[in-house]
Hints:
Residues 37-316 form the Histone deacetylase domain. This protein is an alpha/beta fold.
Amino acid sequence: MIGYAFAPQTLRHDPPPTMLRTAGAAVALGEDNIAGPARCAAAHELVEASGLLDRLARLDVAPAPDGALLAVHDAAYLAALEAASAGGPWAFDFAPVTFATADAARLSAGCGVAAVDAVLDGRVRRAFAQTHPPGHHAERALAAGSSYLNTVACAAAHARARGAERVLIVDWDVHIGNGAEQIFADDPSVLALSIHQDGWYPDHAGDVASRGADSTTVNVPLPPAVGDDGYLLVLEAVVAPIARRFAPDAIVVAAGQDIGIFDPMGRMLVSAAGFRALGARIAALADEVCEGRLVVCVEGGYSLLYAPLCALRVLEGIAGEDAGVADPFEGDAELRAAATPPDGRLDAAIERVRTTHSRWFREERSHR
Ligand SMILES: [Zn+2]
């Protein structure tokens, strides 16, 4: 059975649209913020309307407990977020706060915690958290990139507190998982592995060697236009060998949909079918290295047109299910682009990671 964590109250986090300011006026870019709740709402609706929800174990969700939050965030930062949601000051760019933000972020992190509990209790084999807002850019005392509380970090810390000796975080959002990198920089029990577009938000982040070869930070910066097969190659050539050698007790995935082919914030060309394949591959890897203990959390995804379907496909992949929802772009040129085979630039990027972080790849043959 696959667990499914979603809390409708998280959709109350509905930040205002971005404004372009001129000398005399301000122009709103649409009615909603690009990180508004519409994609999460549609993604959940798809799971429900398709009938897939009936075949999943719906998990009870509560706000993330203080222990999980304080393991990854400073108390003063948590207090500042609460105060800002009550109308107080807030100083962080690209992370606007409304009256609902603190509660929604805490509940979103709670989805990750509920997923961990269900998996570690053995109530479900794997679990999927339909989270909003995202969390992977949030550091110990920093909100950034539409992230306030770091859901995957809370999930990993909660798993540790419950007895998991080692936790592997795999972040395939198009942006670096800078939050987990910073939060667990000095903690060898959590390996923060981020696959992201090279030279993307935030600036000066995500270099392959950012914390050195002896650390448990592994950054995998990739060229644009990697496509479906390219991501699967990265899972085979980088993620799988590291998972085998690190031997985690659980894997937590930050499954951003912004590597999707229609996403306005990334340039990675992954199709919905590609997301299903990624979900299936990471589930098989969890089966191989940690008795299936897998928690997958939604992260960034900014195409209202496509991100909800991509989230559904990831869930289908980890559940081994087909919800029967057709890709509206089936047969179109874009999807053929997603199927373009990996090229030499990707091979070079993978080789750079394997050389820099060679300790994880000893006794491994060439990846091709
Ligand atoms: Zn992102």
